[in-house]
Amino acid sequence: PAGAPADVAPPVRAFDSAVPDAMLEHLRQVFGPASSFWGEHRYSSLARCSSEDVGYFSYAHELTESMGGTSLGRIILHLLRVATPCFPELKEARYAEWWAHCRPHPSGHQMHYDSDNEGIGGAR
After folding, report:
1. Radius of gyration of the chain (CA)
2. Which of 7, 34, 77, 90 could form a disulfide with 84 if both were Cys (CB 3.0 to 4.6 A apart)?
3. Could you say which DSSP state residue 114 is in?
4. What angle do CA 57, 61, 64 make, to 5 degrees?
5. What is the CA 94 to chain-centroid distance, rounded?
6. Reduced 3-state DSSP string for 28-78
């Protein structure tokens, strides 16, 4: 941004092709609209995009090399390796949080730190 000190790193970065094609295809299968993930989690895209009886939820994983024993663990560790050169403080990270949505196009999802399903019904 204009006027920002030169020694301040941007807080967000985009990484083109950060996930290899095979990993991306796996994610598409695991989290695609017809995936069993949504039914197993009682997820409803019509109930404010959360489980009707459980509500919104996410998963937290401890960052250990043993988490590479699962496909999602391998993807998380891969993304950590991709991002760490730009964000060296990630070397100290101990946990990774993830969540998934299956929303009707183009309901979108705003970038946020913490909010109440931003993007549903417009920006607030």
Report:
1. 17
2. 90
3. S
4. 175
5. 16
6. HHHHCCCCHHHHHCCEECCCCCEECCCECCCEEEECCHHHHHCHHHHHHHH
Integer Cα distance of 111 and 123 in angstroms: 11
pTM score of the predicted model:
0.73
Q: Structure tokens of 31?
A: 């989290």
Helix (H) or strand (E) holding 96: strand 95-98
pLDDT digits (tens, 9 = 90+) for 52-101: 566 567 889 999 888 888 999 999 999 999 999 999 999 999 999 998 87
First to last CA, the chain: 24
| Number of Cα atoms under 13 Å in the Cβ half of residue 102 | 20
51, 57 Cβ separation under 8 angstroms:
yes
Q: Dig out the tokens for 17 from the structure.
A: 């092709």
Look up residue 96 and give its two tokens.
């990774």
Q: What is the pLDDT of residues 15-57, one digit of tens each?
A: 999 999 999 999 999 988 888 888 888 776 655 555 556 656 7
